[in-house]
Amino acid sequence: MEIDWQPVWLTLKLAATTTLVLLLVGTPLAWWLARSHTRWKEVVGSLVALPLVLPPTVLGFYLLLMLGPNGPIGELTQSLGLGTLPFTFPGLVIGSVIYSLPFVVQPIRNAFEAMGERPMEVAATLRASPLTRFFGVAIPLARPGFVTGSVLGFAHTIGEFGVVLMIGGSIPGETKVLSVAIYDHVESLEWEQAHWLAGGMLLFSFIVVFSMFLLEKRLRRSGT
Amino acid sequence: MSCIEVSLKSRLGEFELDVAFEAPARGVTALFGRSGSGKTSVLRAVAGLARPQQGKVTVNGTVWQDQKRFLPAHQRPLGYVFQEASLFPHLSVRGNLEYGWRRVPKADRLIKFDSVVELMGMGPLMQRATHRLSGGERQRVAIARALLTSPRLLLMDEPLSGLDHSAKRAILPYLESLHDEFAIPSLYVSHDPNEVAHLADRMVILEQGEVLATGPAGDLLTRLDLPMAIFDDAAATLVGTVSAHDHSFHLTWISMHGGRVAVAREDLPVGRHARVRIQARDVSLSLKAHSDTSIINILPAKVVDTQEINPTQMIVRLELLDGQTLLSRITRRSGIGLGLHEGMHLYAQVKSVALIG
User: Fold this and answer.
1) Distance (Å, rounded) from C-alpha A156 to C-alpha A139?
2) A35, A78, B85, B180: which has the highest count of C-beta atoms within 10 A?
3) Do A129 and B74 touch (CB under 8 A)?
4) In chain B, what are the domain boundaries?
């Protein structure tokens, strides 16, 4: 029996890219959610949390409409000469970013809130500008939140299926990720391949969750 | 004259803050008041951590805030010591100390790194993680960290209130030496009259968001129309010089014009300035200078003012020959028995004297 490694690598690439994008987008968003006093905040907070309860196929369906040739974003990307995003790797990244957003934003937001205003005030009285104190104080102090957020975002992206199926399809090397590959194997009654991939996922997921608990425990003990 | 001018108006729900005061560009000015009187709000506004609806803050001629301008906190050359040390947990003691110091341009560094490290006893702590420090050590690091920004104004928000009695006693000398060593004007928030007597030259008394009185600390702490004089631990501070040591009875004499008081023997050079604190309840009054008493500290004095504290007790404000003030708490019965009246000359018998520096 031969295991096709391509979906594995593609999945890891997708998860890594998604996590990176989420850290870049999610950090300012989490900061704003933790610090803002506007009434709008909870509306935005709810939108961010929506993928937690929304069936992934529903999310995928709307993304397909938006990104498709007649959707507003699809028209934009076409006019920029980028073509359309569904059934491409970048399209998959966009879907995954939205799908995994709450898993990254929530832990970081919690960490920022737990920190309170004081450390930033102290830094201000020590001459640190807003940006310097954000990078030199807020981010290091919120480290446990970043660790949790990254791990959850990464793991959650690896496990996604519904969104991928709606906007990605099953193009080998481009959009055929692990979960889709397992599904395809089962559909074509290739039980052994499905077993290997599914078992691998099970082991991987356990290792991720277990090491996250260990890491959190250690971070808490070191007092940061 | 260079000084600190503050006037603030702010409304936060039910609480209204409306204060204006000046503080000299030298020494420690205490912002004194009960909790909820607005002390911390004033300090935060001076620091630029809070933005009052209307405010003017001028320090040594530089405007930090007025109707048009608002200098953000990180651009104000100040040092701030918070009630809790609030050290950065992700940095070592050295990292904490260097955090602000690094950001001050070399030309503006008026205070040497090593001299603060030495003065505040930081040497053995430098490489430690902050969570391995005691409460007193943490607060010392916080004070050193603030000093190292070479502030033009040092703001301290009850830096001792979170500490136990012995930690407080251990840190007070550092605060006092800071006063002597660096000529940085300070605003010091406190609700403890003893702390104020120890550290402050002047005080601003706040009550419900307004200034009740400002003036020299020694004067305000003993004024009978202000709340401190009727506190249970009301006391007066006297300044004198060490005049002699009594080896056989293990005493040190501190003299002032018109009298002297004895404290338990302290190893101080004769001629050095000394301050003593005398509790009102340790001072009794007598019409004659008795020699047939166990009390050895007897000072001639004049009655300036009297005030009932409760139906049983009264407080008497006395002026010594050199103009210094003493408080005496006696029963109303004794007061009437002695026929106390303003301008009356008598003798204050002091049972106990504490040297405070």
Assistant:
1) 23
2) B85
3) yes
4) 3-222, 235-355
The C-alpha atoms of residue B328 and residue B344 are separated, in whole angstroms, by 14
- Is B82 in Cβ contact with A127 (below 8 Å)? no
> In the structure encoding, which two tokens stand for residue B223, read together?
């004024």
**Which amino acid does the sequence have at B146?**
A
Residue A1 lies in a domain: no
- How many domains does chain A divide into? 1
Chain B hits for A124, Cβ within 8 Å: 48-49, 72-74
CB atoms near residue A22 (< 10 Å): 27
**Residue of A121, A122, A143 to mutate, testing the B interface (most B Cβ within 10 Å of its Cβ):** A122
Domain of residue A73, CATH code: 1.10.3720.10
Residue with tokens 């004049």: B302
Q: Are strands B186-190 and B28-32 parallel, antiparallel or unpaired?
A: parallel
pTM score: 0.84
**Side chain identity at residue A224, one-letter code:** T
On whether any CB of chain A is under 8 Å from the CB of B106, the answer is no
Rounded CA separation A111/A126 (Å)? 23
Interface residue B89 vs chain A (CB under 8 A): yes
Asked whether residue A111 is domain-assigned, the answer is yes
Which CATH architecture does the domain made up of B3-222 adopt?
3-Layer(aba) Sandwich (3.40)
Residue A132 and residue A53 in contact, taking contact as beta carbons nearer than 8 Å:
no
- CATH class in words for B235-355: mainly beta
Q: Using one digit for the tens of pLDDT, what is the confidence trace for B286-333? A: 888 877 777 888 899 999 999 888 899 999 999 998 888 999 999 999
pLDDT by residue (tens digit) across B100-141? 999 999 988 888 899 888 888 888 999 889 988 998 899 999
Helix (H) or strand (E) holding A119: helix A118-125
Measured CA to CA, the distance from residue B45 to residue B30 in angstroms comes to 16
Strand partners, B275: B239
- DSSP secondary structure, B53-66, as one string: SEEEEEETTEEEE-
Which residues of chain B lie closer than 8 angstroms to A129, CB-CB? 74
Residue A197 lies in a domain: yes
Residue pair B326/B312 in contact (Cβ under 8 Å)? The answer is: no
Cβ–Cβ contact B309 with A under 8 A: no
